[in-house]
Automatic annotation (TrEMBL):
The lineage of its organism: Bacteria, Pseudomonadati, Pseudomonadota, Alphaproteobacteria, Rhodobacterales. It comes from the Bacteria. This is SemiSWEET transporter. It is found in: Membrane. It is a multi-pass membrane protein. The keyword Membrane applies. The keyword Hydrolase does not apply. NCBIfam families: SemiSWEET_2. The chain crosses the membrane at residues 6-26, 33-55, 61-80. Keywords: Membrane, Transmembrane, Transmembrane helix.
Length: 83
């Protein structure tokens, strides 16, 4: 298996884990169990990984972190909206 395939596999698995959380938060409007600080820190983290991926033109990093940033924005927005 080439490193590119490993990168895409890691990107897919690391990204899809946030989609169910984002969907659940928006469906139930229940964010009590989520820490705003933790969610914002993770949003900053994936944003920095996205910037890094863009700088080095690493498509698995770029694509995965576009999805992760989008999911985290949805989660943070829900946390702020549904206090």
């Amino acid at each position: 298996m080439t490193p590119l395939y490993i990168g895409y596999a890691a990107a897919i698995l690391g990204t899809i884990c946030w989609i169910p959380q984002a969907l659940q938060v928006w469906r139930t409007r229940d964010t009590r169990s989520l820490s705003l600080v933790a969610q914002v820190l993770f949003l900053v983290t994936v944003s920095l990984w996205l910037a890094y991926g863009i700088m080095i033109v690493d498509w698995p990093l770029i694509l995965a972190n576009i999805v992760s940033v989008t999911a985290m924005i949805a989660i943070v927005t829900a946390k702020l909206k549904f206090k």
